[in-house]
Design brief:
The protein is α/β, with parallel strands linked by helices. 46% of the residues lie in helices and 17% in strands. The protein has 9 helices and 7 strands; from the N terminus they run E-H-H-H-E-H-H-E-E-E-H-E-E-H-H-H. Bound molecules: iron/sulfur cluster (SF4).
Length: 278
C-alpha cells in the first residue's frame, strides 16, 4: 500500500505537470529541496495576512498593525533558506505585505481565512487543502488564492492553458465550497509581489462552469493515481523545462537529459545546475 490518503490542489498541479515527480514526492517520500527564499516570503506574508484579516468585517489595518504582524510572522518563520541580505529580505516581505493589504482592505467582510477544507474521497483519496481566503465585497463572495510571486507580465498574458493551470487551485476550492452549500460567485489569484504592482487575476465569467472543469480534472487525476498505485509501479516521466526545478532530477535520466540540453543552449535550469554539477 502506498499510504497516500489525500490529494491537495498543489498535489494535483504536480501530478498534471509530471506524474513521476508526484510519485517520488508522495509515494516514495523522496526529499524535496528546502523552501526557497520566495516560498519563505510567501509563508511570512500569508501568516501576517491571516492575522491582519480575521473572519468578520474588514478593518483596514494601520501601518503599525502591519509592521507588528510582519515582525511576528517573520520571527516565527524558519529562515534557514535565506541566502541574501536578511535586511533586504525583510523589506521584500514588507513590500509584498503592503501590496496585499492595499487590495484586501477594499473587501467588506472576511468569511474564511486559511481554512482547512476536506471533501469528496473518490477512490479512497480525499480532497484536502487550505483555502487562503473567502471574502465578500458588496453582494459578491470571492474565493481568493494569494500569491507573492510575479503576475503575468503586461502585454504577454498567459495562454488559456496556462491560466487554467494557475487558476485550478482556487477553482477547486470554489467547487468544494459550492458543493458544501456556500453561495460563491467568483474565484481568482491575488498577486502581491514585492517588486511589481499587485494584480488580481479572476477566473472566467462563468466560475461554476470552470470549477466543474477543475473538479473533473481532479476526478480524472484521482482515478489515474488509483490505477497507478494499484499497479505498484511509478508512472511515466513527463520531462519539460520545469525539470530544472524538480528535486529528483539527479535520479531521472529523461529529466536530466532535458536539463543538460537547456544548459547547452544557455537556458535557465534552476537548482538542477547544482544538483547535476553543471
Ligand atoms: S526530472 Fe522532470 S521528468 Fe523527471 S521526475 Fe522530475 S519533473 Fe518529471
Amino acid at each position: 500500500m502506498s499510504g497516500v490518503t489525500h490529494l491537495s490542489p498543489s498535489g494535483l498541479a504536480t501530478w498534471r505537470q509530471c506524474p513521476r515527480e508526484w510519485w517520488h514526492k508522495y509515494v516514495d517520500g523522496w526529499p524535496e529541496y528546502p523552501p526557497s527564499e520566495e516560498m519563505l516570503r510567501g509563508t511570512i506574508v500569508h501568516a501576517a495576512v491571516e492575522a491582519l484579516f480575521p473572519v468578520g468585517p474588514v478593518k483596514p489595518p494601520t501601518k503599525a498593525d502591519i509592521d507588528y504582524r510582519l515582525s511576528v510572522a517573520h520571527d516565527e518563520a524558519d529562515k534557514t533558506p535565506i541566502t541574501s541580505d536578511p535586511g533586504e529580505f525583510y523589506e521584500t516581505c514588507r513590500a509584498s505585505l503592503h501590496s496585499a493589504v492595499e487590495r484586501l482592505s477594499k473587501l467588506d467582510e472576511v468569511l474564511l481565512v486559511e481554512e482547512e477544507l476536506r471533501a469528496w474521497g473518490n477512490w479512497g483519496l480525499e480532497f484536502y487543502g487550505f483555502v487562503d481566503m473567502v471574502a465578500r465585497k458588496g453582494r459578491l463572495v470571492f474565493v481568493i488564492d494569494l500569491k507573492t510571486g510575479s503576475p503575468p507580465k503586461p502585454h504577454t498574458p498567459w495562454c488559456e492553458d496556462q491560466i487554467m493551470e494557475k487558476l485550478i487551485q482556487p477553482a477547486l476550492y470554489f467547487a468544494v465550497l459550492a458543493e458544501q452549500g456556500w453561495e460563491v460567485h467568483a474565484y481568482g489569484l491575488l498577486f502581491a509581489p514585492h517588486d511589481a504592482p499587485s494584480q488580481l487575476l479572476l477566473g472566467p465569467p462563468n466560475p461554476h462552469g470552470e470549477s466543474e472543469v477543475a473538479a473533473a480534472m481532479w476526478d480524472e487525476a484521482v482515478l489515474a493515481i488509483d490505477r497507478q498505485i494499484r499497479s505498484e509501479s511509478p508512472p511515466e516521466a513527463r520531462p519539460s523545462a520545469l525539470c530544472g526545478w524538480c528535486p529528483h532530477v539527479d535520479r531521472c535520466p529523461s529529466g536530466e537529459a532535458v536539463v543538460r540540453e537547456r544548459w547547452r543552449l544557455n537556458k535557465s535550469v534552476g537548482p538542477a545546475r547544482e544538483a547535476l554539477g553543471l
